[in-house]
Prior knowledge:
The protein is mainly β. It has four domains: about 1-80 and about 640-675, no CATH class; about 90-160 and about 565-625, no CATH class; about 170-180 and about 445-555, Sandwich (Tick-borne Encephalitis virus Glycoprotein, domain 1); about 190-405 and about 420-440, no CATH class. About 15% of the residues lie in helices and about 40% in strands. It has six helices and 51 strands. Strands 7, 8, 11, 12, 13, 44, 45, 46, 47, 48 and 49 form an eleven-stranded antiparallel beta sheet that branches. Helix 1 packs antiparallel against helix 6 (about 645-675). The longest helix is centred in the C-terminal third of the chain and has 34 residues, at about 645-675. The chain is rod-shaped, with a radius of gyration of 56 Å. It starts with a helix and ends with a helix. The mean pLDDT is about 90.
Amino acid sequence: MMRSLFAGVSGLRNNQIRMDVIGNNIANVNTVGFKAGRVNFKELLALTLRGATRPTATQGGTDPIQIGLGMGVATIDTLFSQGNLETTGKITDLAIDGSGFFILRSGKTRYYTRAGAFSFDSDGRLVDPASGWVVQGKMADDTGNIPSSSVIEDIVLPFGQKAPARATTKIEFTGNLDGSQVPIPSILDTGVILAVEKAGDDSDANGLYANGQANSYITGLVPGVSTITVNDGTTEKTYTYVSKDGSVGNGQFNSLDDLIAEINNDFAATSFRADLDSEGAIVMTDTSGSPHTLKFTSNNPVLQTAFAAANGEVDSSNNITTKTDQFSRYAKEDELLINLRNSIGTSMGLAAGDVIDVSAVVGGESKSGSITVTSTMTLEDLTQELNTILGIESLPGVTIDADGSIKIQGDPGEDNAISSVALRVASKTTFNTAMSFVVEQEAKDVVHSASITVFDALGEEHVITLTFKKTPVRNQWTWTASTNGNEIISSGSSGKITFNSDGSLNSFTFDNGLTTLKIDPNNGADIMDITLDVGTLGSFDGITQFASASTAVARSQDGYGNGDLENISIDRSGKITGVFSNGVTKTLAQISLATFNNPGGLVRVGGNAYLPSGNSGVAIIGQAGESIQAEIIPGTLEMSNVDLAQEFTNMIIAQRGFQANSRVITTSDEMLTELVNLKR
C-alpha cells in the first residue's frame, strides 16, 4: 500500500518541476535570445515480485511480475530552435540567423549567448550593456585587412581615428567623343573682282558689267525675247539674244563677240564696223568715207543704256568714232593681274613691277610676304603665292570664286584661324580697296573637356581637366591636360587618342613617348604620378567615338583626402566597416561566432549566457558565412523561441498529471483508513 503513495508523491514532485520549467518559459516569452526548456520524464526502478521462467518441454515460460516505484525527471532540455527576428534599426543590435553563439569575455572567462543587444562603451568596446561583457572577434590592420592568423580578442573601434590621405595614381575615363563633328576652317573672301571683256573671250552678255553710262550688270536678257536694234540712218537691223550662237548672219547673239560679228556682217561693207577695244568698249568706226548717224535701241534697259553711249555720228574723214560703255566680266584664274577691275568696273591699275605686300594673322602669329607683279602673272599665280605666304596645307586653300573674288579657306581648327588679311600696293587705292577680305566663317574646333578632382599625398584637392580636340585626320583627336591652380604639370601633359572604324579605341599615346601624367602639387607633397585609363584597346569599355553627342567624362579616381571616422556598418558576415568623412570605407573588425557539437550540453549561467560543459564539447570558433553556416543580421534582435500555445498546452498536461497523482495519494490514504478500521 505504501508503494502507491510514494509513486504518487514522485508524480506530484516531478510534475511540479515541469510546471517550474513551463513557468520559466512563459516568464521569458519576451526575453531577447531566450531558448525554451523542456522536461522529459522517466520511469524509476521497478520492484520484482516474481522473476521470469524459461519454457520447458511440457510447460510454457512465465513473464516476470514487477511493480513500478514511480517516475523521475530524465532531462531538462534547452531547445535551440530559431527565434523570430525583430527589426530595431539600431546598428549594434545583432541577430544570428542559423546556428551559433556570440562570444563574450569577462575577465578570463568566455561566455556564449544568442542575445545580441550590444552597444559601445566609452572606450569604444562593443559590449553587452547589461553585463559589461565584451564581444569577441578579430581586429583589422591599418590597411583594412584581417589576417588569417589574427587571434580572437575584444572588439574595440577606434572612434576618432583618421584615415590618411592617398595620392591619386589612376584616373578612369568613359563616354563618347562625337565622330560626326569636324573642325572647320576660317573662310575669307574679297568682293567681286572683274576683268576686261576682250575680243575672243566670248562671254555671255547676260551678266557683263557695263561701266560708263549704265554702271550696272546686264541682267534679265531672255533668250528669243531680248533684242538690240542697230540703225545707221539708212539700214536698220534687229538682233535677238539667244542662249547659244554658233554662226554669223542669223541675226542672233549670245556674247559681245557674236553681236559684233553680226553688226559687221550687215554694216561693215557699206557703213561702219564695230570692234572691241582693249578697255572692253565697242568702238564704232566709219568704213564708207561719209558720215553716218548711229542709233542703238534695246528692250533691255541696261543694254539700252550701255549702247546709248555709242549713239551719234561716225565719220572717217574727220576721224570721228563712237563707243559703248566699257564691258567687264567676272575674273577667271587665267586672268592677267594687269587686266583686273574692281566690282564697279574700275581698273585696279596694276602694272608690271608693282609689289604687292601681303600681311595676315594665322593661328595668332603674324605672317607677311611680298609679290612682284609681272606682265604675265595671272590671278591663279597670285592665289598660289598667297597660299604659300599663309602656309595653308589643306585643300582647297586660296581659290578663285565664281564671281572672280579671291576666297581663302585655311586649315581646320582655331589653331589655324586666319584674320586681318591685307594685300596692299603703294598708291594703288582701287586695288587696295578691292582686296579687303571679309570673314565669312570663323575657324572653330571640335572640343570636349572632362574634369575631375584628384588628391595629392597631403590630401589637398586639385582639379585636372583633359581637353580632347578633333584633328583633320580621320578618327584622331589630340588631348591636353591642364590644372586650374598653382600645380605644375611636369610631364605627360599631351598626346593623341585614335579610334577604329567601328568606334572602338585604337590607341592612346603620350607625346614624347611618355606613359604617365606627372604633376607637382607645389605645396610640399610628392609629385603625383597618374595613369590615364581610357579603356581597353579594341573595346568599348572606355572612351568611344560614335556619331552622337560627346559625353566623355572622368568617372573615377583612386585618391582621397584625410578623413575622420563618422559611422560604421555591419554586414552579414559580421564585418564592421568604418565610414570616414572623406568617403573612404575600411574594414575595422569582424565579429566571431562559436558553435558546439552538443549545444544542449551548455550550462545556463543567467543573463542569456551559457558556459561549456563536459558534454557540450569545446567551442568551435569561426566567422559567419565561412566556417560557420549562419548569418549575422544587423539592426535586428532574435526574440524568444517560446511557443505560448505549446506552453499552455503543456501547462494543462502538467496540471492533469499533478491532479491524477494527487488522487492516487488520497485513494491510497482512504484504503489505509479502511485497513485501520478492520480492528474495530
